[in-house]
Amino acid sequence: MSFTRRTLGKMAMGLIGASCLMGMPAIAADMPAPFDKPGDVKIALVRYLSTGDFFQAYLSGVEAQAKALGVDLRVLDSRQDAALQADMVDQAIALGVQGIIIQHGLTESMKEAAQRAVDAGIKVVAFDVNVENDAIPQIEQSDRDLARLALEQAIADNGESWKAGYVYVAGIAPLDRRNETWVEFKGKYPGIEEVAMFGTLDNPIANSVANQARSVLTANPGIQVMFAPYDEFAKGVKIAVDEAGMSKDIKIYSADISTSDIAAMREPDSAWAATAATNPAVVGQVSVRALAQLLAGEDPGKSVIVPPTLITQKQLIDNDIKNMEELSAKLPQFAHADVAMPEWMPNPNE
Amino acid sequence: MTVRDIAIRYGFIALLVGLIIFFTLATDGFASPQAAVFIFQSVAITGVLALGVTATLVVGGFDLSIGSVATTAMMASAYVLVVLEQNALVAVLACLAIGVLVGLINGFLIVYMRVPDLLATLGMMFLLVGLQRIPTEGRSIATGMTMPDGTVANGTFSPAFLALGRHRFDFFIPSLIPVSVVVLLVLAVLIWFFLEYTRFGRMMYAVGSNPKAAELAGAPVKAYKIWAYVISGVFASIGGILLAARLGRGDIASGNNLLLDAVAAALIGFAVLGAAKPNAFGTTIGALFVGVLLQGLTMMNAPYYTQDFVKGVVLVVALVFTFALSHRGRS
Question: What does the alpha-carbon distance between residue A295 and residue A293 come to, in Å, rounded to a whole number?
Answer without folding.
Answer: 5
